[in-house]
Amino acid sequence: MISLDKIQVSFGGFDLLRETTFLVQHDDRIGLIGRNGAGKTTLLKLIAGVLQPTSGDVNIPKETTVGYLPQEMKLKDNNTLLGETILAFEELIGIEKRIAHLNHEIASETDYHSDKYLKKLDEVTDLNERYSILGGDSYEAEMEQVLLGLGFLRTDFNRPTSEFSGGWRMRIELAKLLLKKPDIILLDEPTNHLDIESIQWLENFLQNYQGAMMLVSHDKAFLNAVCTRTLEISLGKITDQKMNYSAFVKWKMEQREIQLAAYRNQQKMIEDTEKFIERFRYKATKAVQVQSRIKQLEKLERIEVEEEDNAALKIKFPPPPRSGRVVVESKNISKKYGDNLVLNDIDLTVESGEKVAFVGRNGEGKTTLVRIILQQIDFEGSLQIGHNVKIGYFAQNQAQLLNGELTVFETIDEIAVGDVRARIRNILGAFLFSGEDADKKVKVLSGGEKSRLAMIRLMLEPVNLLVLDEPTNHLDMQSKEILKEALAHFPGTVIVVSHDREFLDGMVDCVYEFRNKKTKQHLGGIYDFLQKKKMETLKELEIPTQSRKGSKNNRGKSEEQIRQIPFEERKEINRNISRKEKLVAGIEETVEKLETEISEMDKLLSSPENINDSEIFANYETLKNDLAQTMEKWEKEHEELESLKKKKNW
């Protein structure tokens, strides 16, 4: 359907895309991935016709329609929500008007056999057929369905678009794009402005969409649910595989091992060849061989391997100062903006070490409650911040608050203290700011790079309560993994507002759902919460059937028995699981350290001069005994952890 042939895109001597060639078929569902700045948005713009390549051809058949939703766009605010959305059906509305006009003219005709009269009848027939094909009888219902699916209320339909925030106006543009039903949809980070429920609705919509799509997203669950083909941009080249994101990552790891082996072999060959050339360059008897080797190197296609900074995955927050057991406690919290009641009579208790997610539709008060906890706005009710609680805050617009005139290095240097100042470049490198990137001015960075930089600033502050409002917007996959890993091992308390299910999965142990100006606590992880939400929509008669299909732990227990565990006991079980998980993780780190030391000892003992060294042997045996004891401890603690998890599921 669409072909890109030997596309080259260059900026200031730098090749963003090199000799890129691929086809998009009419039913392709393509996930476009790569690091921030790799060229994903540029590729979408090429297909949309917004940009032209430096060289090469983008071939799109004339009859093919393309719909493009960029990350940012200029929006007009001179219409109501319905009035703006209905613009998606310009052709249908035009047909309606034309049919009405023709019917009026036909009704006034008296000569029923004239060519003029018959032509009008034929045109009306053709227009009615076209109207039916385009769904003219159902477009209003379809428009309502899409708007409701994207989180709008019926009471919003007649509101001026100027009353909606930027995120909601982006949803209006998304609704218009989906309703136009183009042959190919191009979406650049569509989930950034959507809540979890809207993302799930969009997943279902796209899964059933009759057309091609290419989308950029850093939401792994969304990519896996929607896309069956993955294109990765790396080092200016495209890697194309007919598989979803998770399968692609696994395949890529296997290919990387193969590529690294080939790279090492080539580097060894290059090194040996260069040594030969250098050694025999001035020997007449070897002149032919030397020239042959020189030509061999010139013709050699060098293997490139994308840098992978594994140290980044070990980044940790600094040890937090100890706080009291209760970190945040609020009672009867209410908040109004004018006559608009946002929160009504909210109770919330967050204890030390808990990792809590705030989820719910946009506009339900998540950020408002965050700002109340930070004591940035006034409210009704009582709020108590615990003893010695020090708060670190990452706002939705945190990246925009950075000083654009400073360099990346200066941005971190101005807040770094102590020995951290000597390690700034190492820290920046761990967050993928390597080499010359550290000397770039902040104002030239992409949105994802600014978010990474803002996150580094936060990670250098010694705090024990992290409050994060949509921290993953604009972050690429690797940056999100870095942050998630750091938060998972952070011994302090975390409150995170996010719609990213994969980011929250395995990190939070409690979910607060915001709905209808209230909050509801759900113990467990984000997928436990989503599963419960689906169960809550079942009719009362279906609940016993569903419970019989539940986990093995519930078999043989009645619904009443399952519900008998009191709320406080379930909360204590979750607390114990969290403590036990941290203990197991600590033991696993010890095991890893001991195994590394034993491996180093093995290398020492492989040398003949160390075979009779009794001290090395003694240390070796001590390490092996320590490892055996640590593994026994790990098995014991791991069994207790599994037992707690089973008890939680009763």
From TrEMBL:
GO terms for molecular function: ATP binding; ATP hydrolysis activity. The keyword NAD does not apply. SMART domains: AAA (SM00382). Keywords: ATP-binding, Coiled coil, Nucleotide-binding, Repeat. Residues 570-647 form a coiled coil. The keyword Coiled coil applies. Gene3D superfamilies: P-loop containing nucleotide triphosphate hydrolases (3.40.50.300). Belongs to the ABC transporter superfamily. ABCF family. YbiT subfamily. This is Probable ATP-binding protein YbiT.
